[in-house]
Amino acid sequence: MELQNDLLIRAARGEATERTPVWLMRQAGRILPEYRAVRNKLSGFIELATTPELAAEVTLQPVDILGVDAAIIFSDILVIPEAMGLPYEMVEKKGPYFPNTIQTEDDLAKIRVADVASDLAYVTEAIKIVKKELNGRVPLIGFAGAPWTIMAYMIEGGGSKTFSKARRMLYNNPVLSDKLLQMITESTIQYLKAQIAAGANIVQIFDSWAGILSPDHYKAYSLKYISQICDAIDEVPVTVFAKGAFFARQEMRHLNCETIGLDWNMDIQNSRRLIGEQKTLQGNLDPCALYGSPLEIENNTKKMLQAFGNTRHIANLGHGVYPDTDPEKVKVFINTVKEYSAYMRSKEV
Ligand code: CP3
Question: Which residue from 102, 130, 136, 151 has the fewest beta carbons nearer than 10 Å?
Answer without folding.
Answer: 136
